[in-house]
Amino acid sequence: MILNLQNPIAFFDLETTGINTITDRIVEICVLKVLPDGSSKIKKDIINPTIPIPPSVSEIHGIWDKDVIDKPTFKDVAPQYNQFIEKCDLAGF
């Protein structure tokens, strides 16, 4: 598939502590950036959500409390992601 891009496009994939957008938090973020020349870059981090990850959710995405204990919070990595997606069109899946 050939994309006719004017701007880079950034595709987001998130793993979270649940599906409530008010109370749940990100535990993994991955962004695939496709550039107009067809090349791509990926940025991915495990995130400490600062709240417990329910075991039923960990069974789905495979990320457990022990996996995030020494990881940065989203607040810590947000500036890097902001810079990574600057001037990108956004998409999600």
Short summary:
The protein is an alpha+beta fold.
Give the topology, please.
Blueprint: E1 9-16, E2 26-34, E3 40-46, H1 55-61, H2 65-68, H3 74-84, E4 89-92
Parallel strand pairs: 1-4
Antiparallel strand pairs: 1-2, 2-3
Give keywords.
93 residues, alpha+beta, 4-stranded mixed beta sheet, 4 strands, 24% helix, elongated
Task: Please characterize this protein's 3D structure.
The chain is α+β, with helices and mostly antiparallel strands. Helices cover 24% and strands 30% of the residues. The chain is built from 3 helices and 4 strands. The chain has helices at residues 55-61, 65-68, 74-84; strands at residues 9-16, 26-34, 40-46, 89-92. The protein has a 4-stranded mixed sheet, with helices on one face. Strand 2 (26-34) and strand 3 form a beta hairpin. The chain is elongated, with a radius of gyration of 15 Å.
Strand content: 25-35%
- DSSP strand tally: 4
Uncertain segments are none
Helix-strand pattern:
EEEHHHE
Classification by helices and strands: alpha+beta
**CA-based shape:** elongated
**Strand order in the largest sheet:** 3-2-1-4
Question: From the alpha-carbon coordinates, what is the Rg to the nearest angstrom?
Answer: 15 Å
Mean model confidence by pLDDT: 95
Tally of helical segments: 3
Helix content: 10-25%
Largest sheet: 4 strands, mixed
Distance between the termini: 18 Å
